TrEMBL record:
This is rRNA N-glycosylase. Keywords: Hydrolase, Plant defense, Protein synthesis inhibitor, Signal, Toxin. It is an enzyme of class 3 (hydrolase). It catalyses: Endohydrolysis of the N-glycosidic bond at one specific adenosine on the 28S rRNA. Residues 1-23 form the signal peptide. It comes from Saponaria officinalis (Common soapwort). GO terms for biological process: defense response; negative regulation of translation.
């Protein structure tokens, strides 16, 4: 029976990749080699980047492409020996607006942020869930709200790392749902997946400590970068030439003149 169930789940994950138009990207949290994580982040960037668009003469930082019709979301699978939890990322912004996990009876439920993604879109990205099990999250997706629901004073209080991601995932998969566990998982998952794709700095910190958890030596810089990703993208587009800003920019941790000092991994497509 166990083999049958595992085979069925594997088939569902494969089918979800087909039904959503592109292969889902999977991170195996049981693989303790940094290259696994590095390849995972690279695949996300390659999946959402525009192959031709360049901002500010910065050729080594890709710009996100505009999604085609019917291909608005990217599915991310976070796999452990105890099961897989999936995220739905918006291809236009890379924000995560929904996730999929099993309950204590191993029945899939999809949870989504209202006004960010429709129930139809949730069912499209997570076809294995029934309409009755698509559930609205009754709080916001911003970091401030997630911190409060997780009962933390800032988004980096717990640190980052593969073990922490695996630990917080285990509290939302095949468990009774609680807001605290949910918000804690989302807070860590967003930073380990979304922010690591946006910022090479965060990816490199994870790789340096892999597979151990860690606290950064400069939480202020990391949080400031995360909070200013949209503004940074506009600044690079509007005011950088050959990777150098025309004037100093301060994104919360001192003046910056060179784009490379921001240690970017991906830029938002500002529609230009």
């Amino acid at each position: 029976m166990k083999i049958y169930v595992e085979a069925t789940i594997a088939w569902i994950l494969l089918q979800s990749s087909i039904w959503t138009g592109n292969a889902a990207i999977t991170l195996d949290l049981e693989e303790y080699h940094p290259k696994v994580y590095e390849d995972f982040i690279r695949k996300i960037r390659n999946n959402v980047k525009d192959p031709e668009l360049i901002y500010g003469g910065v050729t080594d930082v890709p710009v996100m492409r505009s999604p085609v019709v019917g291909d608005k979301h990217l599915r991310i699978n976070l796999k452990t020996d105890q099961g897989t939890v999936s995220l739905a990322l918006d291809r236009l912004t890379l924000y995560a607006y929904a996730y999929l996990a099993a309950d204590r009876s191993n029945v899939y439920h999809a949870y989504y942020f209202n006004r960010r993604i429709s129930t139809k879109e949730v069912r499209n990205i997570f076809p294995e869930v029934s309409n009755a099990n698509v559930i609205k999250i009754n709080y916001g997706s911003d970091y401030g709200t997630l911190q409060r629901r997780a009962e933390l004073h800032d988004q980096l209080q717990l640190g980052l790392g593969i073990q922490l991601l695996k630990q917080t995932l285990s509290r939302v998969n095949r468990r009774a749902r609680t807001e605290k566990n949910e918000a804690t998982f989302l807070l860590i998952a967003f930073q380990m997946v979304v922010e690591a794709a946006r910022f090479k700095l965060i990816e490199d910190l994870v790789l340096y400590h892999y597979p151990l958890d860690f606290r950064t030596n400069n939480d202020r810089m990391v949080i400031s970068l995360v909070d200013n990703w949209i503004g940074i993208s506009f600044a690079v587009y509007e005011d950088a030439h050959n990777g150098v800003f025309k004037r100093p920019y301060n994104f919360g941790f001192g003046n910056v003149r060179q784009v490379k000092d921001l240690q970017l991994g991906l830029l938002l497509n500002v529609g230009k």
